[in-house]
Design brief:
7 helices, about 15% strand
């Protein structure tokens, strides 16, 4: 599991408050906060000293806009100094309005353009399984992001081959253009994914839903407050 540090969940509000400016996307960040923290603190088999370990778990933040919760969680777990947060989005800061994998320790993919993270996660899980690795891939997407057609192909392919080691967490803030209430989990289940629907701010429910359950890909729909 991720190496613990003196900073904990209670410190995230203060860490996020260090990031100021016009690109905060507070609502987007707060909607992911409890899921991202639970992943890094309780679920992912990774740590700052294993950034190049081929058998580390991977977390792909496909929902790359509003990455404050992601940055605060990485800082709290020692991936980079907390002082970096004070200058985020400045010209010489590695912490941009969208994450850049070439600049941020522990960031696995550059993101912000919607629809890329899930297909990348499917490919990574497929490659890890092909070489016999037990590493897992977790990808966080937004419900509106699933309007992108690339995700339909990824969902269908992963379900058809029973792809192990892949978990998708969908942050559902009711912002999808083609929204049909209560159909997100069913969309994955139709393609033979195991599914769960939870309160996206309940750490116990989040942790329970992210535990290994049955073979094949897993989709967890985390309901949060509706986007205003």
């Amino acid at each position: 599991m991720t190496t613990t540090t003196p900073l904990g969940r209670r410190d995230l509000t203060a860490l996020m408050a260090r990031m100021t400016g016009d690109e905060k996307h507070d609502a987007a960040a707060l909607s992911t906060l409890d899921v991202v923290w639970t992943l890094y603190h309780h679920v992912l088999d990774i740590s700052p000293d294993r950034l190049d370990d081929p058998d580390r778990d991977r977390f792909y933040l496909s929902k790359g806009h509003g990455p404050m919760a992601f940055y605060a969680t990485l800082a709290a777990h020692g991936y980079f100094p907390v002082e970096w947060l004070d200058h985020w989005t400045s010209v010489d800061s590695p912490l941009g309005a969208h994450p850049d994998r070439a600049l941020i320790p522990g960031c696995e993919i550059s993101s912000g353009s919607l629809g890329h993270g899930l297909p990348l996660a499917v490919g990574t899980a497929l490659a890890l399984g092909a070489r016999g690795s037990r590493a897992r891939v977790f990808v966080l997407v937004g419900d509106a992001e699933l309007d992108e057609g690339s995700n339909d192909e990824a969902i269908a392919f992963a379900g058809a081959i029973g792809l192990d080691g892949l978990t998708v967490i969908v942050i559902d803030n009711a912002s999808a253009t083609h929204r049909r209430p209560h159909r997100l989990a069913a969309r994955f289940a139709l393609e033979s994914w195991s599914t769960a629907e939870i309160d996206g701010h309940d750490p116990t429910a989040i942790l329970g839903a992210l535990q290994p359950s049955e073979p094949g890909p897993r989709a967890v729909v985390a309901r949060v407050e509706a986007k205003s």
